Structure formats: structure tokens, C-alpha cells
């Protein structure tokens, strides 16, 4: 069986979490299809994460060059096109991140392989891949098949799979030269700019008390801040709260905010859209309060209260002040 390729995403010398999630899924597919997993690393000289990747794949193809240390789509695309044309992998997985959103469709055009984007699962049925995607803001799951092809390209949603090691691998590391005749670089990496962590760093908190649009008014945010203070926790929020300027951006949890890993996560008046939930996959216990018993947040919450958040917040504050 032809390989399963995983494109390894990295930044500043570290493999990104999404790469481990893609490798986990590749390992899972590999067992079902009896197909080897080949990780592709395009990076600078001696990227320190290569041994870790090798422990999760049958083979790692490493293309090292200082011009590849940072994501340079034109070069990465040229290299991947040549590797795919040479190796003809059955499935190529990449994260649905700025890397994958750039590479997936472009590779499809260049290789003729069909692409499915932002997938939350990949299944094998009758020796062909099918993918599962969420539609209508996560309210429905859609199972999609591809037109028949020699190979398939799939971008995976961050947080859809575990990052754990899914087997004992001692992947062979194969170093290859940058192929000749790569295209001209039209988009050049300039510099990393870290977003300011702000006065607090929600990624380091053990207890997060998070507020969503259900809080209704900016003045009400203070009620939840008071609860967070009484509990010794940190205040965080969903995106609409930031969009409305009720809290600064560094409080935001989710795909366009921060991924958090508190021991306990309180979600107050948060519906549980996938962009939010993707940021709390590392949380320990999730406790949700929502007046809508069908809110998607209850699918991921360990404990749920179907009630008005204002009642619950006041009751908790009353108990804590005693
Ligand atoms: C590209 C992109 C990136 C995004 N990134 C993020 C991100 O990083 N983080 C993020 O959070 N979102 C993100 N979003 C937005 C996301 O799709 C949702 O719109 C958002 O998460 C919804 O926020 P919410 O749950 O606070 O609001 P809503 O979906 O409006 O939910 C409010 C909830 O509050 C409940 N409620 C109302 N009143 C009460 C009450 N009195 N008591 C109890 N419950 C009550 C309602 O039942 C409802 O479930 C992104 C969207 C896009 C397109």
C-alpha cells in the first residue's frame, strides 16, 4: 500500500501540536490500511524536533536548508509537489492551519489530487478515504467522499485528534537535498512578532472562569471577574466578548485566541462553537452553565448546569463569601 504522508508543521525549532495530532491520525489509518507513515519535515539545518517525529512514523523525509527554516509557501509547495510526484502517497495529511490552508488547495491544483479541508475525521471505506467535516457552525456533521484518485489531500482541524504517540516507531530519517528548479519566492518570511501576553496569561492558569455572549452587557463582565477572583481563578472569554470590546484580546480562548489547559474550565454563557472548543481540548474538567440544554458546549462538558448564568454566578459567590 502507498504511504500516508504527514506534513510536519513547526515554528521556531518546535513541532506544532497539530503535527502530532496528524501523526496520531496517520498511525490510526496506517493500522487499518497497512500503509507506512512518512513524515515530511522541511526546515532549517538540524531542527531539534526530528527525533521526536521519527518516534511517531515509519520514515521521516527531511529537507534541510536555511531558506526553509520558516514557512515559505512557494518553496514548500515546490518541494511537496516533487515529493508527491515521486512517491505517490495515498493520503497526505496537513493541519488546517495557515500552512495547510495555503498548501492543501495549491497542492491539489499542482498534483491533480482532490483535497478536503478542515476535516474532523478520516475514515476508510471500501479502500477509499472518506472525511467528516462540521457544517453550520458545528451543528451538523457531513461525511464526504472524493472522486476516485491515485492520492488524496486532507487538511485536519486542530484539536480533532489526540497528540499522543500511537505506537512504537523507530522511523528511518532520510535526508534529501532541496530539489532543483524551485520556483521564485514571491512571499518572503520577514519576522516573528509575538502578540503581547497582556496583563495576564490565560495559557498558564489552572482555573479559568470564561464568559461568553450570554453575559449580555459589558457591565455584567465584572460579576464574573468577581467570581473568578473569589475562586482564585483567571477570567477568560469567547470571541464575541472581545469583538464587542468588553475584554481585551489576551483573554480570548479558541482558534483565533489562545489554546488553554487549565485543570478546571468554567464556561458561562458560551455556546460551544468549534472555534471555541478547539481552544479547550487540553482542559481537565469542563463545567458549563447555559440556559439552552441543547447548547453544543454540553457535548464536551464534564458537568453541566442548564440555568441562567446570573443565578449560578450569584449562588456561587454567596457560597464562596461565607
Ligand atoms: C475564523 C473564525 C475564528 C473564530 N475564533 C474564535 C475563537 O478563537 N474563540 C471563540 O470563542 N470564537 C471564535 N469564533 C466565533 C465562533 O464561531 C462563535 O461565534 C463564538 O465562539 C460564539 O461565542 P459565544 O458562545 O460566546 O456566543 P453565542 O454562540 O452567541 O452563545 C451564547 C450562549 O449563551 C447562552 N446564554 C444566553 N444568555 C444566557 C444566560 N442568561 N444564562 C446562561 N446562558 C445564556 C446561549 O444559550 C448561548 O448558548 C471564530 C469564528 C470564526 C469564523
How would you describe this structure to a colleague?
The chain is of the alpha/beta class and 322 residues long. It folds into two domains: 173 residues, HUPs (Rossmann fold, 3-Layer(aba) Sandwich), CATH 3.40.50.620; 120 residues, TPP-binding domain (Rossmann fold, 3-Layer(aba) Sandwich), CATH 3.40.50. The chain has nine helices and 16 strands. The mean pLDDT is 93.
Nearest-angstrom radius of gyration?
A: 22 Å
Order of helices and strands: EEEHEHEHEHEEEEEEHEHEHEHEH
Bound molecules: flavin-adenine dinucleotide
| pLDDT averaged over residues | 93
For the record, what is the CATH homologous superfamily label of the largest domain?
A: HUPs
CATH topology of the largest domain: Rossmann fold
How is the largest sheet built, in terms of strand order? 9-8-7-10-6-1-4-5-11
CATH class of the largest domain: Alpha Beta
Quick structural summary:
This protein has 322 residues and is of the alpha/beta class. 28% of the residues lie in helices and 26% in strands.
Give structural attributes:
nine-stranded mixed sheet; Rossmann fold; binds flavin-adenine dinucleotide; elongated; 9 helices; alpha/beta; five-stranded parallel sheet; 26% strand; 2 domains; 322 residues; 28% helix
Helix and strand topology:
Blueprint: E1 4-7, E2 10-11, E3 14-15, H1 17-33, E4 37-43, H2 50-54, E5 59-64, H3 73-87, E6 91-95, H4 98-111, E7 115-125, E8 128-135, E9 140-145, E10 152-156, E11 172-176, E12 207-211, H5 218-231, E13 234-237, H6 239-243, E14 264-268, H7 274-277, E15 285-290, H8 297-300, E16 303-306, H9 309-321
Parallel strand pairs: 1-4, 1-6, 4-5, 5-11, 6-10, 7-10, 12-13, 12-14, 14-15, 15-16
Antiparallel strand pairs: 2-3, 7-8, 8-9
This protein binds flavin-adenine dinucleotide.
Flavin-adenine dinucleotide binds at residues 137, 212-214, 238-240, 252-257, 269-271, 273, 275-276, 279, 289-292, 295, 308-310.
